Structures are given as C-alpha cells and as structure tokens.
Amino acid sequence: MSTPGPAPVTAGADEARRLDAADPLPTLRGEFLVPPAPGGAYAEAAYFAGNSLGLQPRATADRIAAELADWARLGVEGHTQGRRPWVDYHELLREPAARLVGALPHEVVAMNTLTVNLHLMMATFYRPAGERTRIVIEDTAFPSDSYAVASQAVHHGLDPAATVVRLRPRDGEEHLRTEDVRAFLEREGRTVALLLLGGVNYLTGQLMDMEAITAAGRAAGAAVGWDLAHAAGNVPLRLHDWGADFAAWCTYKYLNGGPGSVAGCFVHERHVRDAALPRLSGWWGTERAGRFAMAPDIAPPPTADAWQLSNPPILALAPVLVSYEIFDRVGMPALRAKSERLTGHLARRFAEIGADVVTPADPARRGAQLSVRVAGAGAAAERLAREHGVIADAREPDIVRFAPAPLYSTFLDCHRAAEALAAVLREK
Ligand SMILES: *Cc1c(COP(=O)(O)O)cnc(C)c1O
C-alpha cells in the first residue's frame, strides 16, 4: 500500500489508516500487482472490481514461466518428468479447492470454465421427466446462466418460456426471501427438475441461505446446483454437508486466477460412484491407470474427475494453483472475518454519504460486495476510475458494484471509495 506524495489528510483517511495498521489480518496487498491510479494523491488504484477480475498475484508469472521452461526443456516428457508433471497437475488443486468450498477431495475437480461446467453438470443432473421438467433460477441470474438453462430446455425438446422459472423478490423488495423460495418449492416442487441459483447474487450481492434452500430443493425432489461464481473465495462454504448435488465456480473473480482461468466443479459424494449416471465423456474422465492404454471403453473413477473431458490447459491451471495456495495459507475463516470488517466499514461510510445500497444490510446475508444504485451507472463508474482512481464496476442501467477483496483491499481504499462516490453523486 504505497501512498507517496501529498495524500489527503482527513479524519476519514486517518481513521482508515489506523484501522489498516491495527487489523488482526494484515493486508496481503504487497503480494499482488495493483494497477496504478491515474494521477492524483495516490499511486495505486483503489481496486473494487475483484468480483469481476481479481488482481494478479506476484507469484503467478514465475509459476507460469516454470511450466514454459519445463515444456522447453522436456517437450512431451513434461507430462511425466516435469517438476509438476502435467498428467497429474490438476491433482495439485484438489485438496485446496476442496477446503475452499467445504467438500471432500474426491468431490471436486478443476476443469473447463464455469458455464461449460454448468452444462456438463446439467447433462447429468437435469433429467426432465413427466411433469417434473422445470428449471428454477433467480430473476437476476447472470445472463450466461439464463442462456445456459434455456438452451438445456431446448436441448430436451422443451419450450424455455414454459420450462425456466425465474424467482422474483416480493414487490418493492430487492432480495429473495428464503421462506418464499421454500414456499414455492412446497407448492410447485413436483414440477421442478432442477434448482440452480447463485450462492451470492452477482447483481445485488445477496448471500443466499444455501443450506436451507438446498434442503428445501431436495425435499421437493429436485436436483440442486449452485453457481458459486461470486461465492467461492468470498464466503465460507460447506457444500458436502449442505448436500448440494453439484456446484461450479470460476476462479478469476475473488480467486485471482486471471482472465478465463480454469474453473472448479463439485459433485456430491453420493453421485460420484454412480456409474449409471449419464455424462458427457472424454478421455480425461477415465481411470488414470487405463487412460494411456487407449482402452475402447471408458472406466470412470469414483470421483468428480469422471466429469473431465480433456487434458487440462496447464498454463491456465498454474495461476489457479497459486490462488488456491494463497487462500489455503490465510484460510476462509480469517478472510471472512476481515471481509466483514472491511465491508462493514464501507457500508458505514456509504450510509454517511447517503448512497443507496441495495445489498442486504445484514452482514450474514452478504459477502464482500456492496451494490449502489446510481442513475447512469456506466458514466459514474467511469468518473470514479478516471478522476479518483477508484475501480468499481457498472451494471447498466443503475448499479455500481464495489467489492472490497479482503486479500488486498484496505480500509483506506474504502475511504477513497466513499469520498469519490460522494463527489460523483454531488456533481450529478
Ligand atoms: C462471472 C459469472 C459467470 C461467467 O461465466 P464464464 O463461463 O466464466 O464466462 C457466470 N455466471 C455467474 C453467476 C457469474 O457471476
């Protein structure tokens, strides 16, 4: 956190610096490459877009370079003779990924990208039959998820308009109530084949009660999957205990794996041994021992690896391994505690300036993100970045999202965000 030059001395900045210095979990900002601020009092940006693309760990470049070096030195032998042999490289991510999402090691696998994994999971777990054909998502689902479930309906010869149910908050409310999801499932659950929600809503930042909703979905006889794009690395997860059928997450948001980095996937233990489940298969989904025997028939292992298709992109896995190692080192409990302190501070500062925060005020019902309603979100975010070095993220027409990422965001960043937003709102 370098703040050379005449950084403004205000009560808010002083307080923020004191909070940074006294925090029980000192920032790991020094381990990340923080983009420069565009001039002004601060050398570095106040980066709040880690829910869109997390910052680059300094260790990442060397880790990719090591694989390039092994490729140069060994060619094809790198598969077995590399420092981290490529044929088993994804195994290195298994245990830290499992710890991050609260899974057993054989329930997780690093593969593909998020939307691809959602499709692979739906190929197995979305099995419309009889009157049980519907897919339930949230009305504010991320567009990729909407497109994915609609295309699954079409794939099964169903009409997406009749098949996809979008759960809406009550009139005048911003968030889905757990009791309403439960009531819907009690009423119409017999028609629901799949419940697929975001663990943390990308737009409002609402943290869902994944445990209660998973239980309600399963009690209704539906398959339950979670999109953890905004939850992984943000909030503590206990996927195994909650009993979700599947989950998938990207690794470039809170996990800092880099643009398009390899995603994660969870399949509950009760399914991994079920050889009768329909899957879309490829050679990386057969037992390791038999893979290079080029056997005519697939022999899936009793793990989430059975859903793998291809040999993984090692250069895109290397940064993800770096990320999981950082999360493993710090641990989600400490990180979540710091996240609540940072986001709580930002929420207080936003309240002081009269910002219209749509994210739940209860810390237990949100992660690291605060979404603020600002007319002309795009122009506002642009000004925050250009004039104040505060990088937030606009979702048109009227939401600007701020995510203090507890690995590298600071109380001083939160102070800067509040000052900058106040200035932008004042000049509207
Ligand atoms: C970021 C995000 C995606 C992006 O999907 P990719 O397949 O990684 O491009 C999908 N769904 C949600 C909820 C997201 O937040």
Describe this structure in words.
- The protein contains 16 helices and 14 strands.
- The strands form four sheets. The chain has a seven-stranded mixed β-sheet with strand order 4-10-9-8-7-5-6, with helices on both faces.
- The longest helix has 21 residues.
- The N terminus is likely disordered.
- Bound molecules: pyridoxal-5'-phosphate (PLP).
Sequence-ordered SSE layout with sheet pairings:
Blueprint: H1 11-22, E1 32-33, E2 46-47, E3 56-57, H2 60-74, H3 78-81, H4 91-101, E4 108-110, H5 114-125, E5 134-138, H6 143-155, H7 160-163, E6 164-167, H8 178-188, E7 192-198, H9 210-219, E8 223-227, H10 239-242, E9 246-249, E10 264-267, H11 269-272, H12 288-291, H13 314-330, H14 332-352, E11 370-373, H15 377-388, E12 390-391, E13 393-395, E14 399-402, H16 411-426
Parallel strand pairs: 2-12, 5-6, 5-7, 7-8, 8-9
Antiparallel strand pairs: 1-3, 4-10, 9-10, 11-14, 13-14
What is this entry, summarized?
The chain is α/β, with parallel strands linked by helices. Helices cover 40% and strands 12% of the residues. It has two domains: 13-51 and 331-427, Alpha-Beta Complex (Aspartate Aminotransferase, domain 1); 64-328, Type I PLP-dependent aspartate aminotransferase-like (Major domain) (Aspartate Aminotransferase, domain 2), CATH 3.40.640.
How would the global form be characterised?
globular
| Helix vs. strand class | alpha/beta
| Named CATH architecture of the largest domain | 3-Layer(aba) Sandwich
Roughly what fraction of the amino acids lie in strands? 5-15%
User: Number of helix segments?
Assistant: 16
Number of domains: 2
Q: State the order of secondary-structure elements, H for helix, E for strand.
A: HEEEHHHEHEHHEHEHEHEEHHHHEHEEEH
Q: Can you give the helix content as a percent range?
A: 25-40%
* Biggest beta sheet attributes: 7 strands, mixed
Unreliable segments of 5+ consecutive residues? 1-7
What gyration radius follows from the Cα positions, in whole Å? 22 Å
CATH superfamily of the largest domain: Type I PLP-dependent aspartate aminotransferase-like (Major domain)
CATH third-level topology of the largest domain:
Aspartate Aminotransferase, domain 2
